[in-house]
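ARCHIVE CARD
Drawer: 12
Card no.: 0347
Subject: one protein chain, sequence and derived structure
Cross-reference: see card 0346
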Amino acid sequence: MGRSVFATLPILLLTVAASMSAQEPALHQADYYPLKVGHQWTYRAGTDRVVVKVEKQVTLEFKRDEKAKSETAIGFQVRIISGQGETTEQVAVLDDGVYRFATAGKAIKPPLRFFKLGQGALEWAVDSRTEDGKPITGKFVLGTEAIALTVNGKKIDTYTSTCKQLLIGDKEMAITYWFAKEDLKKKEPGGLVKQHIRIGKQDITLELEEFKAGP
């Protein structure tokens, strides 16, 4: 059960925005989770392998809350492949953070922010609902930590995003993401380099094993 849960919950901290015209959705570029078609991350989770690949660019319509105006953003569809099967997610970077718009083919409304960008408090609450009616609630905290990368053995600085009590319907879990800055010139992978999930007494850790850049 654990692997199927983490496979539908991945990922992302991004920094620099490239603005388009006022009539068009904005495409935000990423340092700490480089969203580019063809990018692929492979993680080790015990004896299992989890592959995350950016499939295509998509235009997303959304509201930040029920009273807000409709907006559009350019995001990406990500395919996740593990021993439990395959699923997809839709993610995008907005002006104030990184959001998950859909998981396992089901929309999340409003989109769930799992990384915060910009100034201000380093913690934020989430209160969303899946397309099939499951509430998603919790509080994330942004932090920093130096960790050793499994993929190349280097010790690097990362941003962390932690939710100690994330409720999805009647399921409760704790989750932490670690994100590294991409530097392709030094052949250093960026994006999600480690993830830990606790569900009851079960602990699951994913560590980056391989990164392949898109064309």
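Annotation on reverse: Residues 1-23 have pLDDT under 50 and may be disordered. Residues 2-7 form the longest helix (6 residues).
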